[in-house]
Amino acid sequence: MDGTWLSIQIFNYVLINKFLGKGALAIVYRGYLQEDKTFQMAIKTIKIATILQNQRMVAQIRREIIILQKLDHPNIVKIFDVARTNNYLYIVLEYCVNIDLNYYMAIRKSIDLANLKLFF
Predict the structure, then answer these.
(1) In this structure, is residue 2 part of a structural domain?
(2) What's the mean pLDDT in 17-41?
């Protein structure tokens, strides 16, 4: 996906060009449910070509999906769906409106115990 697109429909979801974050294997964008634009979500996009030749990466992604499907905790994002096209794997996750610990630490550089408890 290059930077020129505005939105893409992926099955029941609309992926919008609103960058939320990036990891080693994925880029996360904001999205919403096609039938309800107010139902915001984070959609992790993984290029199939980047993982196809590495079975360890494929296994790691499978484990992540299986673990997220089993977990139900207020401080862990929920997984809603997984979708695949010819070029991408999409992991549809709960959209968190609050900041995460990494962002907080980047700004503050340190954290006391009382504030740390807010994240857990």
Answers:
(1) no
(2) 91
Is residue 50 assigned to a domain?
A: yes
Task: Report the C-alpha gap between 29 and 15 in whole angstroms.
Answer: 7
Residues 6+ apart with CB under 8 A from 105: 111
Quickly count helices (H) and strands (E) in the chain: 4, 6
Task: State the pTM of this model.
Answer: 0.79
Number of domains in the chain: 1
pLDDT at 4: 77
Burial readout 71-101 (b: 16 or more C-beta within 10 A, e: otherwise): eeeeeeeebbebeeeeebbbbbbebeeeeee
Give percent above pLDDT 90 in the chain: 57
Helix (H) or strand (E) holding 69: helix 55-70
Report pLDDT for 29: 94
Q: Could you tell me the CATH number of the domain that includes residue 107?
A: 3.30.200.20
